[in-house]
Design a protein that fits this description.
heterodimer, A: 214 residues, alpha+beta, six-stranded antiparallel β-sheet, two-stranded antiparallel sheet, 4 helices, disordered C terminus, B: 52 residues, mainly beta, 8% helix
């Protein structure tokens, strides 16, 4: 029975045209020392499964790494490590290839359609998780700005019920989430959500052109 | 006005905790979903009482 995976590792580009392992698992991890993988398609070191998966942005299955001429520079090392077949899957982050997952078996033609589908789903899930992580980090940065600013920042639903006040809105103003409608934060008869035009508001158009305020 | 134009910018008053009005320069934005339905308002306001 095939040892699965004999090796699994994650490759990340270094920004200078080469990829490096950042995580690896399996008895054949020593095989990684033999690898030199470029992401530039003009480099001969880019023509292995990992390089192709990354620069062509697609999955790549190598059914027999010992007999495939494209794997020639690594035949001896693969044979010594007992690695006969492999598949490379790329991760995306922000719409670009971020890394690749490379899995190996000690049996040729081991990577089945079902296994490809499973691993494709897995890297898709990881890609979604990376994008989600980035969106959450951006969200946290925006929240930090809004929470730190001395300007009053708030949000209300279409009926004027306060959904969010930043700290500057809560002290010393009377804006409180529990107070309900933001009309309560304005003087009586001010016109906020009352359907009346507040007499002291200048009638800016919202696109810049403004009427005199009085 | 924010509903009509998508955004309103001008001066308004907000109440302090003690009930006293404070003048603010405020921008109100009406946010709509892809079908054009109003979903919420956001507002940014600056205390301009020292300029008055």
């Amino acid at each position: 029975m095939a040892a699965w995976p004999g090796l699994a590792w994650v490759a990340i580009p270094d920004g200078q045209g080469w990829v490096h392992p950042v995580a690896a698992s399996g008895d054949a991890s020593a095989y990684l020392a033999h690898l030199a993988i470029a992401t530039d398609p003009r480099q001969p070191e880019s023509r292995g499964p990992t390089g192709i998966a990354m620069y062509e942005d697609r999955q790549l299955v190598e059914p027999d790494s010992i007999t495939d001429p494209a794997m020639c520079p690594l035949h001896a090392a693969a044979e010594a490590a007992g690695l006969r077949s492999l598949a490379a899957f790329r991760f995306h982050r922000g719409g670009k290839v971020e890394a690749s997952l490379n899995v190996y078996a000690d049996e040729s033609h081991f990577v089945s359609v079902d296994l490809i589908h499973l691993l494709d789903e897995m890297v898709l899930d990881i890609s979604l998780a990376l994008d989600h992580h980035d969106r959450m980090a951006e969200h946290r940065r925006l929240i930090e700005i809004v929470e730190a600013t001395p300007e009053v920042v708030g949000m209300a639903d279409s009926a004027g019920n306060l959904l969010y006040p930043n700290p500057a809105a809560m002290v010393p103003l009377s804006l409180r989430r529990t107070e309900g409608n933001i009309a309560k934060s304005h003087p009586p008869n001010h016109g906020i959500f009352s359907g009346k035009r507040p007499s002291r508001w200048p009638w800016n158009t919202g696109c810049g052109a403004a009427r005199p305020s009085s | 006005m924010a509903l009509e134009y998508g955004m309103w910018r001008g001066e308004t008053e907000l109440l302090r905790v003690d009930g006293a009005p404070l003048p603010f320069s405020q921008t109100i934005i009406a946010h709509r979903d892809s079908s054009g339905e109003l979903t919420h308002f956001s507002a940014i306001a600056r205390d301009i009482s020292e300029q008055k």
